[in-house]
Amino acid sequence: MSNWLPLTETDRSEMLKELGVDSFEQLIEFVPKDLRISDLNIPDGLNELELMRKTKALAQTNQSTSDFMSYLGAGCYEHFIPSIVNHMLSRGEFYTAYTPYQAEASQGTLQTIFEYQSMMSELTGMDLSNASNYDGASATAEAALLALRHTRRNKILVSKSLHPDYRSTIQTYLSGDDYVIEEINWSEKGFLDQTQLLASLDKEVAALIVQTPNFFGVVEDFEKITEKVHEVGALLVAAVNPISCGLFKGPGQWGADIAVGEGQSLGVPMALGGPALGFFAVKKALMRKIPGRLAGMTTDRNGNRCFTLTLQAREQHIRREKAGSNICTNQALLALAACVYLSAMGKEGVRKVSEYNFRSALYLKEQLSKVKGLEIVFSGTSFNEFVIRSKNVSVSDIQKQLKDFKIFGGVDLGRFYSEFKDCLLICATETKTKEDLDKFVNAMKQILS
Q1: Which is the most buried residue in 42, 216, 271, 346, by most CB within 10 A?
Q2: Which residues lie below 8 Å from residue 393, measured CB to CB, with a gap of 6+?
Q3: Superfamily name and number for 69-79+346-448
Q4: What is the pTM of this model?
Q5: Predicted pLDDT at 2
Q6: Could you give the CA distance from residue 100 to residue 92 in angstroms, rounded to a whole number?
């Protein structure tokens, strides 16, 4: 065992002497022999050419969206990414996510963060945005903490149609304190059950956390609900798909206090499910309580425009005992990707992408509703994904047989909700042509027949 450590014989002898033993075997003699590893069975080393061949062979065993047509969604989506995004991300000066404390040496990074914040604020209709969180789930959990601190209450209402990963992360964040989390169910159309919500709203509620489009892809209207939430002094936290804001009202436009979500759709590849970035935007009243960091634009003593971190007093590296959050590092590289994507697409581009997502899912939903053996579960308006139920063929069989058609056939909802064990969450984005959608429908017809 000791032969694998990067030490000389002299180093080992000195260490063993200091420990009061004569050999490595004597050092571990208390470890039962059946628990010891006698042979590490490490293969011989490879030269660079052999290593490249082996790595390539291993990579080719993976099934990716380059080989299969993907209808996967559930929070991680396949979108068109302009080539300029990867070009900018490949620049060495952007590789680190380290906090740019020294503004004079970090003007480029600080400007990209400032531009990202500005565009996310405009996209969501909120007053300001932070420089991103780790992902959508952690951003949502941070929003719950902010609401609890701001209102000094101890109860959070969470829509059960909120992404399951977000809900479990909220549970984890709040598990160490005496907080109450109550889940609100959905109605037959896939909307939040307003009867249950109104019965649960009281003066103990710090926030209601909702999602639109929700985990089932159903677009919800929360304007009236927001009024009810504000009447009891609570906050409304909205998790949104940023692409959908190109077509529907942003959360700031219908009164949400905090907007959070996953920014992966904005120029970040699916990449086996991560990494991604969580966005976090608020109304001005909550500006000093926002977690993470903020970049601001100012002028130097010569009157030149410059950028710097601002409102740092809330961060752990300044006043830990008063910090609202321990989030300090962020996903700056991926926030840069979102910044470049939004800059390249522009308002009109984002709107077109949103429209294509809406129309693709609508067309596929209509066609699948005609397939014998399938039914559409929720009748509410869908954005880029929706739920189908298979009446006769199991979900696992459908997914397995779709692979014969070179198709990733949606997400098994039974993994998240026991009542949907016979259901698939199907996603269609702007990457799918009408021919692609028809191919999927025909494959489903053959499988179900």
Answers
A1: 216
A2: 373, 447, 448
A3: Aspartate Aminotransferase, domain 1 (3.90.1150.10)
A4: 0.88
A5: 45
A6: 15
Residue 409 has pLDDT above 70, yes or no: yes
Query: Could you tell me the two tokens for 62?
Result: 């993976």
Tens of pLDDT along 5-23? 678 889 989 999 999 999 9
Alpha helices, DSSP H, located in 24-82: 24-27, 48-60
Cα–Cα distance, 354 to 383 (Å, whole number): 8
What CATH code would you report for 83-342?
A: 3.40.640.10
CB-based burial, 92-108: b 16+ in 10 Å, e otherwise: eebeebebbeebeebee
What residue spans in the chain does CATH classification 3.40.640.10 cover?
83-342
Asked if residue 242 has a cis previous peptide bond (ω within 30° of 0), the answer is no
- State the amino acid at position 381 in one-letter form: T
Cα distances (angstroms) measured from residue 448 to each of 180, 288, 408, 424: 44, 55, 16, 14
Other Cβ atoms within 10 Å of 421 Cβ, number: 14
| CA–CA gap between residue 306 and residue 189 (Å, rounded) | 50
Q: For 69-78, how does the pLDDT look when each residue is reduced to its tens digit (9 = 90+)? A: 999 999 999 9
